[in-house]
Design brief:
single chain; mainly alpha; 69% helix
Amino acid sequence: MRYNLKKLYFNGVPADKVRTTSPLKSMTDDQWRELVEMWSSPKHKASILPCLLNCSSQNKCAKNALNREKVRFHQMTGSRCYIATTHALKQEKYKDEPPSAIDLFKALHCSSKTGFNESAKEAIAEMESIAAAPVEDGQVVKTPAEVVAQVLPKSKFLQNIGLQLAAPKRSSKAINDARVIELEAEVAAGKQDKEELKDEMETLKKKVEESENERRRLLEETEQLKKAQDELKKAQDETNAFFRRMFSKE
């Protein structure tokens, strides 16, 4: 809050133009003047001077400021983390029945002074709309955690409150073991392909041998037929010669 107040009402504002009364109803004028006095003190300015002089630090501060502005759902749990606040809520407020993920989202993003901000209101409205929507035949009712995950797909809220564990990081040994298994499968597949190719080649070789044997058989039969034809022709020639001699004697 102090960061936002300083940004709105102090940074870049001339000293004689800085407010002397509190801009918030929840803050008294004396509390506001104490803040202005602290921001104006040489000690406070000296503490931020190195950051302003150092280019890299200045860029880092600027990036952090931009990141803070991008946050849609500001934590409203004070100095306690999500887990500690969630545990306290379960012990104090939700004794009989454990709270759902939607209940916890409401409880952890509601300010005791200002209530919900606009982003939280929109998210809650969408969650309640999805949870209350009728379920068609064949569909499974979504759990509150699934509803929150659908509305906040990039948020780590469920993980922060312990309803969704972070994905475990795979160790280098696990990665290597998985790669070994993959390589063994590839090698096995390669061996299988080789065996299949070998079988196919053996089958083709047998077919070639059978074809060669058939060609040889046909060639032998052709030679035999040729010899038979030659013998038949020789016999006919001899027969013709015999008849010619007989006719010539007559």
